[in-house]
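Open question from group meeting: does this chain pack into something compact, or does most of it stay loose? Before anyone orders reagents, we agreed to write out a predicted structure and look at it together. Recording both the input and the output here so the notebook holds the full record.
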Amino acid sequence: MRIHILGIGGTFMGGVAVLARALGHSVTGSDAKVYPPMSTQLEAEGITLREGYDPAHLEPAPDLVIIGNALSRGNPAVEHVLDRGIPYTSGAQWVAENVLRRTGTYECRGRQDAGSGQGRWVLAVAGTHGKTTATSMLAWILEYANLKPGFLVGGVPENFGVSARLGDEPFFVIEADEYDTAFFDKRSKFVHYRPRTAILNNLEYDHADIFPDIAAIRRQFHHLVRSVPGSGLLVVNGADAQLAQTLELGCWTPVEKFGVAGGDVHGRTSVAGGRMPEATWQAEPLMSDGSRFRVLFQGKEQGSVEWDLIGTHNVLNALAALAAARHAGVPVKTGCAALKEFRNVKRRMEVRGTVRGVTVYDDFAHHPTAIHTTLAALRARVGGKRIVAVLEARSNTMRMGVHRAELGPALAGADQVILFQPADFPWDIKIVTAALNGRARVFRSVDEIVTLLGQELRPDDQVLIMSNGGFDGIHAKLLARLAATPNAATRPPG
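Structure tokens returned:
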């Protein structure tokens, strides 16, 4: 079958392309812009990419068009599909029908009351934050246990080097996001997946372009809960009030809660010591940066983890992944051993390079909570070294100004803050600087930022660049500038 994917550059749709190619289909795709790591992955798979949404890309007409959720009516390619009557579907529906429910029967493991089922054993990871990382952790734990799972991740896990693969039966791990499915299907994508094991990591207001309020998101999470069978398992952040309210809407599935001792919903310390009596799974930090922690199940120690990741938010991700993996039959000790060899997803605190003592990180953070926890994790790791945060407020929610009041406090953990405000940014981001006591500056071009940092950065500085887009290649530009001006990193700030 010849399949063309509209919006192929997105992390989810790029993974769909990889799965379709693995099933033997001829795959092409279009997007406004495709950038690494997804462009690199797709090209390696032999998938032809076309820039823009020219209807000519759909000639001759493919057998099927898979349409991403970012495309809407009025898009020339979408209009061409509708006018020509070309068969079309959404990415989530295609995955559900062609990957998740395409295989034979399996026997459930991990629960004596579980029966057999049709299709694959789906392990879905949902939540406002941490989906990509927790999905990657879970897939790696199953891989380490020699279960050879299939997976679809909204990024590229370093342990695998690809964002998606079919894997062997029965297990399939999928990042289950709450974005709407397509212009013709306004349900969240995750309602299509029908998981047997589901992680609910956290729930905050986001995606303001899709949801009017958090109650609307909570309702979609409830729809996900409704789809998990009684023989399945819900792994739920025990400190999240929004998830508690979600379960109160109705729950027909066993629940195992997780949490960090003395921490809040995101792992931030809220009380001094102590365990969460209602949490089935708990972590006791052994290092303040989250690089070592003890794992407890039902109050009994199961093992410990020492790994390369930092941040108590990642400890929470790990607990959730361990719980879900245990439901699939993986012993906790095996899961802990797997996490010691886990390598994070690209663009999650990814070190892009160190030049003349200046370390440049790339991170996907684009929500105030994610910004806060990422900065806190880096601070715990580097101590008193100077942290320079560079932010592109690129998400639709950020551009709508929904989180403008929380953005300044979220950035407070940095010593210096650089804010990017392109010409088409709809509100004055200087509003954010008031909460940062003169530590923030606003620039209208990436080149200006690179020039400034090339002059001001000095050895041991940590530059944390945060964006959910390509940010005009700022990481490579900055590293090149530092390499080209070797004395720049030794100058004091101007």
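Observations to bring back to the group:
The domain at 97-339 is CATH 3.40.1190.10 (UDP-N-acetylmuramoyl-L-alanine:D-glutamate ligase).
The longest strand covers residues 300-306.
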